[in-house]
Amino acid sequence: MKLDHPVVDRLGRSLVARGAELDQYMIDSMIKMGIMSVYVQEGTEDEEAKPDVPVCAEAERNIERLQTEDRSKVTLTDSVRERVATGIQYIYNNTDSPEMIDATNSIADDLMSAINDNDAIAIDISALKTSDEYTFKHSVDVATIAMIVAKQQGLSPKEIREIGVAGLLHDVGKTKVPIEILNKPGKLSDEEFAIMKQHSVFSYRIIKDNPAFSPAVCLGVLQHHEKINGCGYPMGVKEDKLSPYAKILSVADIYDALVTERPYKAAYSQRDAVEMIMSMTMELDMTAMKSFLESMILYPVGSIVELSNGEKAQVVRNIPHYILRPTVVGLSTGKVYELGEDLNCASIIIL
Predict the structure, then answer these.
(1) Left, alpha or beta for 76 (phi > 0: left; psi -120 to 50: alpha)?
(2) C-alpha span between 104 and 257 (Å, rounded)
(3) Which domain, by its residues, includes 40?
(4) If you average pLDDT over residues 245-257, what whole number do you get?
(5) What's the Cα-to-Cα distance from 215 to each of 162, 207, 218, rounded to whole Å?
(6) Which residue in 10, 50, 129, 321 has its CB near the most CB atoms, within 10 A?
(7) How far apart, in Å, are the Cα atoms of 266 and each of 4, 6, 206, 222, 257?
(8) Quick one: 248 and 268 in the same domain?
(9) What are the CA-CA distances from residue 142 to residues 38, 52, 137, 322, 325 (Å)?
(10) Are 179 and 245 contained in the same domain?
C-alpha cells in the first residue's frame, strides 16, 4: 500500500512522504511513535502495476527482444537498512559521543559492502528507503549517491569510503541550529537564513579536531554548499579552492533535497530535479555532474511510463548518457521509441 497523505510529527516535519510504499519496518516505526493509522491510496499494488491499456502482440515481441537489464544498482537488505537507520539516528543524536565515530564507520562499511557485493555502478534513489525522518534519510541518500558518483569517476576504494563518511556527516551541524529555524514551515527571514547557512561550519567544527576524520573529509563537509562560481556558502570560494569531495557532495545534496518532500515545499519529480541539475552548469562541477547523470536510473527497466504523444510504454533499456530518454516500447502499438538516439523521437518526452 502507498500513503495518500504525508505523515508528520508534532513539529510539522515530514516523517514519511505521500506516495511512499509501506513496508513492515516503516509500519513498526510509526507504531513505536504512536501513529496507529494512516490514509492509503485506493487500489492494490497489483492493480497499480498493470497498465490500463492492453499490450498488443507486437509490443510483447519487441519487449522480449529488446529488454536489457539495468546496470547493477545499490541495494540494501532489510537487516542492513535497519542497521543504517539506527546508526544514522545515533550519530545525529550523539554528536559529542566517542561512539559517533564507530557508528559512522559502521554505516560507511555497510554502504561500501552494498556497493561491492554486486559491483554496483548505478543507483535508483527511490528504492533506498533507509529511514522515515528527513535528516537521517537525506544523509544516507547523499552518502550513497556520492559514493556511486565517486566510483563512476574512478576514485580509489579509500576515497569512495571517505566521501561516504563526508556524506553521512555533512548535515550533522544542523543539530546546532535552533529547531524553530530548522523546521520553519515557511520561507526563512534573512537573519534566519544566515544562521541556517552556518550549519556546514557547525558540521566542520564537530569533526575537524577528530583524527578519525581526514582533512579531505572535513573540507568536503565544510564546502558542500559552495559553488564553482563563488556564489555558495559559507565562504564563497570558487572552483580552484573547492575540494574534490565537495564538488561531488554538492550535486548529491542538491538532487536529494529537490526530490524530497518537506513541510515548506513539495517534492520535485525526479525528471524535473535532473533537469534542474543539468541547468546548473555555472554552479556545479561538470565532471561531478556528468558522473552523477551517468550513475542515476530514473526509469528502471520494466517501468510503465506515459509518453507526451499519449501512448503508454514500457522501458526496455536505459542509456547512461541519456538519463531522461531510455528506449521504450509502446504498449498499444508495439512501436519502439529510441528516445535517446533516434532524431525522429526528439519531440517525444516521458511525462
Answers:
(1) beta
(2) 21
(3) 1-50
(4) 96
(5) 10, 10, 5
(6) 129
(7) 14, 11, 31, 27, 11
(8) yes
(9) 28, 35, 9, 22, 24
(10) yes
